[in-house]
Amino acid sequence: GAGVSQSPRYKVAKRGQDVALRCDPISGHVSLFWYQQALGQGPEFLTYFQNEAQLDKSGLPSDRFFAERPEGSVSTLKIQRTQQEDSAVYLCASSFSVTFFTGTFGSGTRLTVV
Amino acid sequence: GIQVEQSPPDLILQEGANSTLRCNFSDSVNNLQWFHQNPWGQLINLFYIPSGTKQNGRLSATTVATERYSLLYISSSQTTDSGVYFCAGGSGGGADGLTFGKGTHLIIQP
């Protein structure tokens, strides 16, 4: 596609529910990033994939967060047993290069945990 | 990790005014970028500028890497410039996640 596509655009989850957020990167982009943006804050790095390999997951806030990119294209961020503090916008970005990032961000998924 | 501080946090200007946004970072960065987040939440990359000066239309940016700061200049502001401007830095190459500042919320009034 022309840009990074994320779905759903909005998600309301009850506390304790599991959610899955999808990211379709730009075709051919090797690098894929997930960021979490709380209200009024800048995005915070969660995890990085190079093709299907998850090379950095140091930003994942707890073991309830899990990301995968099994075929090196579409990625899914899963959050188990959601809590209110997980409410945020989750942004996905992809980049062609692995040597420098001037990639493209998706519009994000706004997750609200009630 | 790297700390990124942006100033001012908020800025309200009349259409046509010029503005300067500042970004200070706590350590050397090899990857410094400016982004604009529009009111719909879309993050748009403005500049990749680890050092030097770049210009793109009414926008320009300067990074003084030795002094660990970067400036974003907006000239002849338009209402469509409104939104949040983020500076983000990384110490490594493209595989390193960026550390974002808290942003400057810019409102351009007609």
What does it look like?
The complex is a heterodimer of chains A (114) and B (110). Helix content of chain A is 0%, strand content 48%. Chain A has strands spanning 5-7, 10-13, 19-24, 31-37, 44-50, 53-56, 65-68, 75-79, 88-95, 104-105, 109-113. In chain A, strand 7 (65-68) and strand 8 (75-79) form a beta hairpin. Chain A starts with a strand and ends with a strand. Chain B has strands spanning 4-7, 10-14, 19-25, 31-37, 43-48, 52-56, 59-64, 69-74, 83-90, 99-100, 104-109. In chain B, a hairpin with a 4-residue loop joins strand 7 and strand 8 (69-74). Helix content of chain B is 0%, strand content 56%. By secondary structure, chain B is mainly β. Chain B starts with a strand and ends with a strand. Chain A binds chain B through residues 31, 33, 35, 40-46, 48, 50, 55-56, 59, 89, 91, 93, 95, 97-105, 107-108, 110, and chain B through 4, 31, 33, 35, 40-45, 48, 86, 88, 90, 93-103.
Task: For this entry, give a set of tags.
heterodimer; A: 114 residues; B: 110 residues; mainly beta; five-stranded antiparallel beta sheet; 0% helix
Helix-strand blueprint:
The complex is a heterodimer of chains A (114) and B (110).
Chain A: E1 5-7, E2 10-13, E3 19-24, E4 31-37, E5 44-50, E6 53-56, E7 65-68, E8 75-79, E9 88-95, E10 104-105, E11 109-113
Parallel strand pairs in A: 2-11
Antiparallel strand pairs in A: 1-3, 3-8, 4-5, 4-9, 5-6, 7-8, 9-10, 9-11
Chain B: E1 4-7, E2 10-14, E3 19-25, E4 31-37, E5 43-48, E6 52-56, E7 59-64, E8 69-74, E9 83-90, E10 99-100, E11 104-109
Parallel strand pairs in B: 2-11
Antiparallel strand pairs in B: 1-3, 3-8, 4-5, 4-9, 6-7, 7-8, 9-10, 9-11
